[in-house]
Specification:
The chain is of the alpha/beta class and 307 residues long. The protein has one domain. The chain is built from 10 helices and 12 strands. Helix 6 links the parallel strand 5 and strand 6. The longest helix is centred in the first third of the chain and has 17 residues. The N and C termini lie far apart (49 Å). It binds S-adenosylmethionine (SAM). The site of S-adenosylmethionine has 20 residues, from helix 6.
């Protein structure tokens, strides 16, 4: 297995960031081991075989999964309690869950099993410092256990943070976390399929989703239109974007099949591109970072704002 390691320049390149962001990325990169190897043919074949096997039983996302998410976040709440209220316990189990990753156009075997979590840390540090510097009110939709919001609360203690999720145990967990750790954070129920017409957003709010719109397949229109009507100053979506894959490449075709089998987000990026053409939104960044777990790439960024 050949040895490589991601350096600051690789993150700048992946994020499409300028050299001016090198220092803030370096601050987080130096804390972690980003060494990885590429796979020899036999191991690569085995990785592909496990993706093909996964395709046979991967479950479709959607409305019928509501109770599965309720159970998942009730479990997370139990783990948080067992850990004595340690915020680290909020990290969802689907991050760093596969032994191999998708990285810069091929499979990779990370040396540190927490490579993906640490990559995500670098990404969040960059995103938050770059795009949320002046934010006063931040909403995360489909926020799950609230681990992103809890991290943000410590980075920006004066910012008002709101977590929204359709799973009541997630909402209850976040409100307990906020109380216990005295964070300026609250949570309430919200369903992408039925956005609450009576719910306002604070002026100049920032709205974010992380691996959450993926769950609603092609049914994103009600939420996207609801959001645009409320005129947030910025929207950050970190989601798997099917349209970024090249179906003529085996490596991408495998991820695309997984994406389709799970019925993940479809048509959202073209919808935003069309709105940008019509002058209804400004598309600030549309970028595939080239990072994912063994099965697909959840790390694609769409950053935009209504005009
Ligand atoms: C993969 S998890 C991501 C959670 C969180 N954003 C994170 O990064 O850890 C997907 C989240 O979307 C939520 N979700 C799924 N469908 C939803 C819907 N229709 N309305 C609101 N939330 C939904 C789930 O409850 C879950 O918390």
């Amino acid at each position: 297995m050949s040895a490589n390691a991601l350096a600051v320049g690789d993150f700048l390149h992946a994020f499409g960031a300028s050299a001016a962001d090198a220092a803030l990325i370096a601050e987080e990169v130096v804390k972690h081991n980003f060494s990885y190897g590429r796979l020899e043919q036999e191991a690569r074949d085995a990785a592909i075989l496990s993706v093909l096997r996964k395709l046979e039983d991967a479950a479709a996302a959607g409305e019928h999964r509501h109770c599965i998410w309720e159970m998942a976040w009730a479990d997370a709440a139990r783990r948080y309690d067992e850990a004595g209220g340690d915020l680290v316990a909020l990290e969802p189990s689907f991050i760093s869950a596969t032994p191999y990753l998708r990285l810069s156009g091929d499979y990779a075997a990370p040396v540190d099993p927490r490579f993906e979590s640490n990559y995500y840390r670098v990404l969040r540090a960059w995103l938050f410092r770059k795009y949320l510097r002046d934010a006063r009110d931040v909403y995360e939709f489909g926020c799950g256990s609230g681990f992103t919001l809890a991290g943000l609360a410590r980075l920006m203690p004066d910012c008002r943070l709101v977590g929204l999720d359709w799973a009541q145990p997630a909402v209850d967990l976040i409100n307990r976390v906020a109380d216990r750790h005295r964070l300026k954070l609250s949570a309430r129920r919200f369903d992408f399929f039925h956005p609450d017409a009576s719910m306002p957003l604070a002026p100049d709010a920032v709205a974010m989703t992380f691996a959450a719109l993926e769950q609603i397949g092609s049914r994103f229109r009600d939420f996207a239109d609801w959001l645009i009507e409320r005129r947030p100053s910025l929207v950050i979506n970190l989601e798997p974007i099917a349209e970024f894959y090249d179906p003529d490449k085996l490596f991408d075709q495998l991820a695309l099949r997984y994406h389709h089998k799970r019925q993940y987000l479809a048509g959202y990026q073209p919808y935003l591109a069309e709105l940008a053409k019509l002058g209804r939104i400004e598309l600030i960044l549309a970028r595939r970072l080239g990072m994912g777990n063994l099965f697909h790439e959840g790390y694609s960024l769409l950053i935009w704002r209504p005009l």
